Amino acid sequence: MNHRVIALAIATLASLMSQGALAQGLRPSGTPSGKGLTARPAAAPSITLPPETSGSSSSAPRQADFIVAVVNSEPVTNNEVRSRLARAEVQLAQQGGAMPARDLLAREVLERIILERAQLQQARESGIKVDDFAVSQAEQGVARQNNMSVDDLYRRLARDGMGKERFREELRNQLLLQRLREREVEARVKVSDLDIDQYLREQQKGNDVAAMEINLGHVLVLVPENASPVQVAERQARAQRAADKVRAGEDFAAVAREFSDAPEGQRANGQLGLRPADRYPELFVNSTLGLPVGGIVGPVRSPAGFHVLKVIERVTAGVPTTVVQSHARHILLRTGPQLSESAAATRLADYRRRVQMGQADFAALAREHSQDGSSKEGGDLGWATPGRYVPEFEQALNALKPGDISEPVVSRFGVHLIQLLERREAKLTQREQRDMARDTVREKKLDEAYATWAQELRGRAYVEYRDPPQ
Is residue 465 included in any domain, yes or no? Predict the structure, then answer.
């Protein structure tokens, strides 16, 4: 089977949750309620489908299936691993560099499936559900990302062996994982005024860290929770082998693919990407602060395990003095047992039609129907800087022109109807600077909290390994 299109289409959806939409609907505690939909900034998906292939092919007959692992009594089959493995190989081939041994890559893929399976089980046990409307919205997002209709997307996927129901199930699982992470991780993160003051003081010092963007190469060797001293020593020795190979001149991407337990080890040549230094864990920044570009440090220990770091790139980051702000209003319908996402979307679509036909006023509908603190102001969210809304909301808002009304948009708080009133270029006030600082500090804490949470969840899961994947 040709997995090229499938791999990239699924990767598009995976990126919806990998960036982590971790709040939307109301500002967090400490800021005025009902005046915005606050979130850590997150990039929109950017992976597109490759040029169309000449047809699908099957490199080998399908093997008889068998169980390779059991996660809390739920089996993982060999065919599941083989399917994911084929996608991983496509992505690695497109990135270039040396391909790791297939059995090594298969073990890495299996571990990823185990972690995902444990998270999906947790989501279902917690009562988290994803409505068909949310799946359809994600489906449309993938098609739009790849500049095609939904029908064209499924024709492309069908030629590569993936049917509509299977693809929609993949989307549903990705959305389940996203909602679980939103709920479980956000509760762990609190940003105090002291945190913001400290961040702003570091910026005002004018030191290199405050004005720096860095791209780090990263190898992570995980250490299981409650690991014995023998296990810790074995994992440290593995990390040391990786560091020795890199220092000896071996390609970092190849070493990351061979040794790293981190997601970027397989999908991004081991690179974390260029980002402000304050978006990295303090351990990473402090460990690499004195290194030149190309410098290597490690293994260094964290609660997650042992890290090997390489400075790939370092640039001075400019601090914006002006931003383009958006003034919007919205109607929010909260969903639950009494109102599904589909029903809420249908109701909001009717509101949209009535406003566009001049039969109703948006602000009046918001005051009457919106279940948000902004309803008293006709849904008015005020002026907001980029990054103040979660990806679903902000992506829809960015696509609007002044006066436009969006289609219904699903978020973790319910379903929204958004109208863009106007845009302007403005200087940041002191309060807005603190809001942006809060977002940056929160994002950093969320990254750290997610890593800890995922490790804890994996540690609690009962995993029985059977025959190795083939």
Answer: no
Q: What is the pLDDT of residue 383?
A: 92
**Parent domain of 30:** 4-193
Q: Output the CA angle 134-139-140, nearest 5 degrees.
A: 100
pTM of the shown model = 0.59
Residue 290's SS3 state is coil
User: Which three-class secondary structure state does DSSP give residue 182?
Assistant: helix
Neighbours of 184 (CB within 10 A): 20
The number of folded domains in the chain is 3
164-186 vs 150-159: helix crossing angle, rounded to 10: 110
| Nearest C-alpha neighbor of 382 from the set 327, 340, 431, 429 | 327
Q: CB-based burial of residue 257 (10 Å sphere; 0-12 exposed, 13-18 middle, 19+ buried)?
A: buried
Same domain, 220 and 308: yes
How crowded is residue 427: how many other Cβ atoms within 10 Å of its Cβ? 10
Closest by CA position to 409, among listed 350, 345, 363: 345
Both structure tokens of 279: 């978006």
How many Å apart are CA 336 and CA 242, to the nearest integer?
49
In a domain, 20, yes or no: yes
Is residue 188 located within the same domain as residue 236? no
pLDDT digits (tens, 9 = 90+) for 307-326: 999 988 876 544 456 788 99
Entry field: residues in the chain: 470
418-428 pLDDT, tens digit per residue, is: 999 999 998 87
Residue 243 counted as domain residue: yes
Q: What is the DSSP letter of 189?
A: -
- In Å, how far from its chain's centre is CA 320? 25
Residue that terminates a domain, selected from 293, 318, 343: 318
Burial class from Cβ neighbours inside 10 Å (0-12, 13-18, 19+) for residue 183 reads middle
How far is it, in rounded angstroms, from Cα 416 to Cα 175? 17
pLDDT tens profile 154-196: 888 888 778 888 889 989 998 898 888 888 888 788 888 888 8
Please return the burial class of 211, using the count of CB atoms within 10 Å of its CB with bins 0-12, 13-18 and 19+.
Answer: middle
How large is the angle between the packed helices 132-145 and 4-18, nearest 10 degrees?
Answer: 120
